[in-house]
Design goal:
There is one protein chain. With about 210 residues, the chain is α/β, with parallel strands linked by helices. It has a domain of about 140 residues: 3-Layer(aba) Sandwich (Rossmann fold), CATH 3.40.50.300. It has seven helices and six strands; from the N terminus they run H-E-H-E-H-E-H-E-H-H-E-H-E. A six-stranded parallel beta sheet has the order 3-2-4-5-1-6, sandwiched between helices.
């Protein structure tokens, strides 16, 4: 290798599109974590932690979990959001859960009309994307309202494809629609090999939530 030349310049898979290494590293992506196996949301939350550490503003939107389902990552990320408010370290953190009726609307009961609640959540996320409100969005379990027909898949693909700026988006959930998979930049399918649930084990704090 010639002196001063990095290994990446020798990679035949690097697209010669005139972009600098910095521009490639800042390219916004859509990630989809799907499949029947465990770890879709867990992996997405880990990515959110990375984003926060880089000073990115993080928005987490849970589209299916009820208000009673309180995951450990919520307390951790909100504590980091508070740390940012008091010290400036990291980025802002916003956490919204459909099961509690979303914070920006109390006009209806999400439990009684979950389809409408999901649609309201997506409407709000579209506005945030248009305003470039966050650097990183986690749309948790967003594939389900798409799969159930509550939200139009083609509209989601259109909005995400043409979102402005360098906003990063991660979507989780089983049965990701083909159109979403095709437009996404990174798609990971979690495959279950074995799980204690198959033997009747209940979910455990610290493992499942």
């Amino acid at each position: 290798m010639p002196a001063g030349q990095s290994p990446i310049t020798q990679d035949p898979n690097v697209v010669q599109d005139g972009r600098t290494t910095r521009q490639r590293r800042l390219r916004p992506v859509v990630m989809v974590n799907t499949g029947e196996g465990k770890g879709k949301t867990t992996a997405a939350m880990g990515t959110a932690l990375r984003a926060w550490n880089h000073g990115w503003d993080v928005g987490v939107f849970q589209f299916v979990k009820s208000g009673r389902w309180h995951v450990g990552e919520q307390d951790a990320l909100q504590a980091l959001g508070s740390l940012h408010e008091s010290t400036g370290v990291g980025g802002r953190v916003t956490w919204e859960t459909m099961g509690t009726g979303w914070s920006w609307t109390r006009a209806f009961d999400a439990a009684e009309d979950p389809a409408r609640a999901a649609q309201e959540g997506w409407r709000h996320v579209k506005e945030l994307l248009d305003d470039e409100a966050f650097d990183f969005y986690l749309l948790d379990e967003f594939t389900y309202p798409l799969d159930w027909g509550w939200i139009d898949v083609s509209e989601v693909v259109e909005v995400l494809t043409h979102r402005p700026g360098s906003q990063q988006v991660v979507i989780t959930g089983r049965r990701a629609p083909r159109a979403l998979v095709e437009m996404a930049d990174i798609v990971t399918e979690m495959t279950k090999i074995k799980h204690p649930f198959d033997l009747g084990q209940r979910g455990q704090a610290g493992i499942e939530w």
